[in-house]
């Protein structure tokens, strides 16, 4: 059942190319443009939207945070991603046509059974929204109660630490952003074609890089056994990835880990940096690359051990980091799909090296059905 792997988590990480192919299947037309008829959202409705509210917990919330950036870039929509346990109890603001809010509410959940996400979705519906859901488990409570569902098609995820669910959520939400961008006229046909063609290449790119990344993570883990904690840094699309990397590490190694926007480093977290701090920096080639590198210089000056995730051929990054996981070149909005796997494999190998229970970490359940 683990497909010959020692743990479900490793099996599920390595399955991501297949899972992503399933996510994309039939959702990009022969014309190379997004097809999300399953959502039944008309152009008029899409143009009237003023903002998007994503609600989720844990890893699904991180996928929502990635999507806020995709929605801004592709569909010129203001978007927020809020933790469901906060959303459900905040003062209710009108969301429907009568309130004039014109918000699209999107619940994101692997299991479709997370109590807080379900309750937040109900609160949004009570406020006049017609929530849609991005869910993995078919027929789950959230899928049944939503007005429209986009299934992520990751297949069953058994390991408590979510991996393939995350990348398929990111890909599904990316398609949603591209679809809204087309309906709203903010994403040109040629722009959409280019992005979706690049998206179509991601499963092959991942397949090609995974063996090397897995071997590298295995070799690296023994060098990290003396680390007392970890700081994950990233900017733009890299920031939600930093949060996700830190959550993976916390869950399955029990080491303390924090995710921060790299630009916040000077506002506090740099005090943590020293030889026993692992600093993981998500630094693919993007608009903010130079700024992230200068943060890295400051970490090196304080003897932090730096593991970087960067784009092939980046000599400057290779010079500054103690180890680098290399990603193939991709358009900036697609970097999260490539950067997730090294973060997952790093946490996985360190968990194994520390002798932790990888698939069933202490104190955690796969789906949190009580608040
Ligand atoms: O099933 P959901 O996506 O709603 O679950 C949300 C979180 O409980 C989940 O992502 C959790 O944070 C994972 N264990 C993270 O690896």
Q: What is the overall silhouette? A: globular
Largest sheet data: 5 strands, parallel
Radius of gyration: 20 Å
The molecules bound to the chains, other than polymers, are: 5-amino-5-deoxy-1-O-phosphono-D-mannitol
How much helical structure, as a percent, in the residues?
Answer: 40-55%
- Distance from N terminus to C terminus (CA atoms, Å) equals 31 Å
SSE run: HHHEHEHEHEHEHHEHEEHEHEH
On the 0 to 100 scale, the average pLDDT is: 95
Strand runs, count:
10
Low-confidence runs of at least 5 consecutive residues: none
Number of helix segments? Answer: 13
Overall structural class, as computed from helix and strand content, comes to alpha/beta
Report the portion of residues in β strands. Answer: 15-25%
Strand order within the widest beta sheet: 2-1-3-4-5
Describe this protein's structure:
- This is Glutamine--fructose-6-phosphate aminotransferase [isomerizing].
- It comes from Anaeromyxobacter diazotrophicus.
- Keywords: Aminotransferase, Cytoplasm, Glutamine amidotransferase, Repeat, Transferase.
- Its EC number is 2.6.1.16.
- It is found in: Cytoplasm.
- It is a single chain.
- By secondary structure, the chain is an alpha/beta fold.
- Helices cover 45% and strands 16% of the residues.
- It is built from 13 helices and ten strands.
- The strands form two sheets. A five-stranded parallel β-sheet has the order 2-1-3-4-5, sandwiched between helices. A five-stranded parallel β-sheet has the order 7-6-8-9-10, with helices on both faces.
- The longest helix is centred in the middle third of the chain and has 32 residues.
- The protein is globular and about 55 Å long.
- The two termini are 31 Å apart.
- 5-amino-5-deoxy-1-O-phosphono-D-mannitol (M6R) binds next to helix 4 and helix 10.
